[in-house]
Each structure stands twice: as C-alpha cells, then as structure tokens.
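To start, one record:
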Amino acid sequence: MIEAVGLTKRYGDKTAVYNLSFQVRPGAVTGFLGPNGSGKSTTMRMILGLDNPTAGHVTIGGYPYRRLPNAPRQVGALLDAKAVHGGRSARNHLLSLAQLAGIPARRVDEVLGVVGLQDVAGRRSKGFSLGMGQRLGIAAALLGDPQVLLFDEPVNGLDPEGIHWVRNLMKSLAAEGRTVFVSSHLMSEMALTADHLIVIGRGQLLADMSVKDFIAANSAGFARVRTPDTEPQLREKLAGALTEAGGHVLPEQDGALRVTGLPLPRISDVAHASDVRLWELSPHQASLEEAYMRMTQGAVDYRSTADQKAGLQQPLPPGAQPPMPVPGQGQSGWYAPPPPQQAAPGPYGASADPGAAPANPYAQPAAQAPQEAPASQAPAPQPAVAPAPPQAPAQPPAPAQPPAPAAAPQDAAPAAPTKPEEAR
C-alpha cells in the first residue's frame, strides 16, 4: 500500500504539491487525475524517492522507498519511457536492470514476451517508436515481479490494440492483489480501467473516491425525451407540462428534450396526463470526462484564448460558409461538451447544469443565426484584406537584388549572378 501524509513540495517560491494525503490500496486500479501542472509527476517522483518532500512523508508498505530492501523487486515504475540508453538493444537494457537488482536473466525474455517485443529484442531502442518505447518501459516495471506498480501515462503512443492490452494488464495485476497506481489524461480509458480515483488540482487533493461516486458527485444526470417529429405541437405541450411539474427542460439539437429534476416515472406520468405520445424516454448518466471537467475547471492553469486574427483572414471562397462558433467558448467556466453528445457543439450541448438555461431555447431559427450573421459580414473583411496587401510582401525582392549589380562592376562581370559575390 502507498500512503502519503501531508506531502508538500516547493521549488523556490512555487508550491508544486501542498499538504497532500491519500492511500493507494492493493487489489484495485487507482487512477491519478489532474490538469497539467497539478503536481501528479512530482507526487510520483516523491513516492519513488527521486524528489525529497519539503514537508510530510510518503511510504510504500510502511517504509520510505529508499529504505526498502531491493526496491526493484518490490516496486516497479514507468515515469519516462524515454529514459533508455538509445544505443542498447531492448534486451540489453532490461538485462542491465536485471543484473543490478539480482534478477535472473530468464526473466528478461519473459517480460519481453509479455509486452510483445520478443521479435525486436535485438534492435537498438533509439529506433523504437513511441508505442514501442512505452512497451519497453512497462517491461522494465514488470521485471522484478513487484507488488506495487506506478505508471505515468502508460498508454501514450499506443495503438487501440495496445491500449486494450494495457487496460487488461492493469486489471489483471490488481486482481492478483497488487497495488496499481496509474496517471492518465484519457478520461474514457480511466473510466474503463480504474476502480478508484485520486484527483488533485494545483497540488491539492480534490477527490478521493470510487469512480461511480465521483461521477455521481460531480455531474447531473438527465432524461432524454422525444415526441413524434410529425407533431411539433406535442413537444411544446410536453415541455410546458414538465416545467409546471417542477422539471427543467432544455431542447436538444435533434428535436429531443433534456429533462432534469424529475425521475423517469414522473416524466412518463406527466406525458400520459397531458395526452402526449413518447417516442423515447431514456436516462443519461454523465461520463467521467464531464464529471472531471466540472471538478477541475477552477484548477486549470493553462487556458486557450480567442485567436485575434482580424484583418489576417483570407476572404472565403464563393459559396463557402464560415465555421460555426462554439457557444460560450472563451467565457469563464466554459468547457467542452461531454462525449455522449456526438452532434456538433450547440447551444444545449455544453452543459447539463439546470441553471444554465439558454436565452431562447425553443426558437428554431436560432440555429441558423450564427451562419447568417457572418455571411452578411463576409464582404466586410475584404477591404482589410485587399489584393494590395498580399502583393506587398512580393515586392521586397526587387530591392534585395541591387547588391548583385553593385558587386558586378567591381568584378568587371556585369552578368555574374549573386552567388559568386556571396561566396566571396
């Protein structure tokens, strides 16, 4: 078991980790999540004794890593897949690690087979792709058959088959009673792999709970309701009845309704009492990505801004439509729509928050407004990008050529090109 108590790490005036306490228990895959710069890698380095904490402590099986006897046999880790001597073959790299830890050489061939690199064991690692390097790093972590394993972004660079293999490997290791601690930014993969989550932001603990509890605590489920498309008046009638019943209704782009605040049986009763036929009534459970975005949106350090390219855009070709703007992007608290909404981002896909009602939810022409407005303004940017400015950069080469004629009279060779002059 890994246990951190009051773990703090400062680099000068910057605090990377602050008062972080958690436990990673055996028998489960524990996901370690957080935005870039939140302190995940620093925490893992302190677990492995690569960085000394400013305050607090972290132990593995009750002992600091540096006090573990023959630590490679008890703890395996993949923090940087590129930490390999490029001139060594995959087998020689693992063999050197095995000899340092007193591990039999036959174990090298075993782990090469486990990660699928047995056919390239004699190749130098500098020629490996990113995915092959990840497999070699996983092989090094498994070399001592340890009871505690730490992986930082283990599926980075792997193809779908490799990701599926890593997922099953993590689960099988945890099923054997080992402690598995995995850091990743792939929410969809964590949802399929992890049993427990530890989430940090700006070096502090945000959540320490199961995946199921984390999603339930940081997202709002909703019901998806659809009425006959041939009778749009029924949709309006049902929306009004559900609102009167205490529900919050938002329209979907495909004509369905997103209802929060009412359970499915209550929605069915309201529809029946209103004499409205339903084509669909289904529950929607928020994804791990949606819950993660809600939890960490206030702890993100690196946010993109709007591209200020006014006057730099080329005019659109005749008949082309400008791209649809993403509603809400760039505003405080905005985040991308959750994966279950596969349609293009729209006014109702950005959030399931009951308090985020659109200004005009039922006006159908609103979906066309963003397209018509830029179209009417399309001629406006053309004066700013007149034919003259693009040609202006093409004229400077003329002044750049006089040095050649100037140098030509000195050499009494007026027809000589500029290259001999540059050579001198």
In short: The CA atoms of residues 142 and 272 lie 59 Å apart. Residues 327-424 have pLDDT under 50 and may be disordered. The chain has 16 helices and 13 strands.
